[in-house]
């Protein structure tokens, strides 16, 4: 039960490895149509947080609700496939035996013509029209990554969890791919939690930023506010290399 309209809600999430706390009492909410960036330096616990929400890592403590339903709570621990979330992770992998179109259509339901239209529309958004009949081994790494991105977008998930999905992309392509991804997610009104260690990416993509350090959220707010009024010197220094 929840009284709010949040699509993602986590409360007091904690996780230790070998006695070392890597996520400590993290709470946050993401509403429909909102992009929340979990931003912080490498090793601060961002991926562990996201992995717990996805269901591939088990919290020591806390609650996780998706669409108001507990997916992790006392006596509840739904497996990833039952949580109703879309995932875009860094280490994407395509099915090697399927074509590009087959990969993108994999999670889709409906008749063949509808699926093909959706696949074509998405390929076009990331500059890969005409690639549908190729196999993954015929594509460059960056092209494969773009296919993996749109494969995650294709089923129109209501909740999308993204862990640095743009980090390996060529500078020349990255802005366009980010914009195309946001356009698709916003059109569907998805709630998006995007993990990044790049302030510039968070400034560009977030409606709200949760700044993380040492396993804790140290500041939350609109990008402009965090950038202009960082909570402390460390936060200011972290933002200082944006130009
Ligand atoms: P981030 O994504 O912010 O870079 P992570 O959540 O991946 O940080 O990792 C936070 C800390 O937890 C790191 O020090 C990492 O080495 C450690 N860690 C993550 N997963 C495990 C694991 N399965 N076993 C042991 N330590 C881990
Ligand atoms: Mg990480």
Care to describe what's here?
By secondary structure, this protein is α/β, with parallel strands linked by helices. It is built from 8 helices and 11 strands. The strands form 2 sheets. Strands 7-8-9-3-10-11 form a 6-stranded mixed beta sheet, with helices on both faces. Strands 2-1-4-5-6 form a 5-stranded antiparallel beta sheet, with helices on one face. Helix 4 packs parallel to helix 5. It is globular and about 50 Å long. Bound molecules: adenosine-5'-diphosphate and magnesium ion. Magnesium ion (MG) binds next to helix 1. GO terms for molecular function: ABC-type ferric iron transporter activity; ATP binding; ATP hydrolysis activity. One of its GO terms (cellular component) is ATP-binding cassette (ABC) transporter complex. Keywords: ATP-binding, Cell membrane, Ion transport, Iron, Iron transport, Membrane, Nucleotide-binding, Transport.
Number of strands: 11
Number of helices: 8
Query: For the largest beta sheet, what order do the strands appear in spatially?
Result: 7-8-9-3-10-11
Poorly predicted ranges (pLDDT <50, ≥5 residues)?
A: none
Helix content: 25-40%
For the largest beta-sheet, the strand count, sense and barrel status come to: 6 strands, mixed
Element-by-element helix/strand order: EEEHEEEEHHHEHEHEEHH
End-to-end C-alpha gap: 44 Å
The overall average pLDDT, rounded, is 93
Rg computed from alpha carbons, rounded to a whole number of angstroms: 18 Å
Strand residue content: 25-35%
Structural class: alpha/beta
Bulk shape = globular
Assembly state (oligomeric): single chain
Small-molecule binders = adenosine-5'-diphosphate, magnesium ion
Keywords: ATP-binding, Cell membrane, Ion transport, Iron, Iron transport, Membrane, Nucleotide-binding, Transport
GO molecular function: ABC-type ferric iron transporter activity; ATP binding; ATP hydrolysis activity
Domain ABC transporter: 8-239
GO biological process, one term: quaternary ammonium group transport
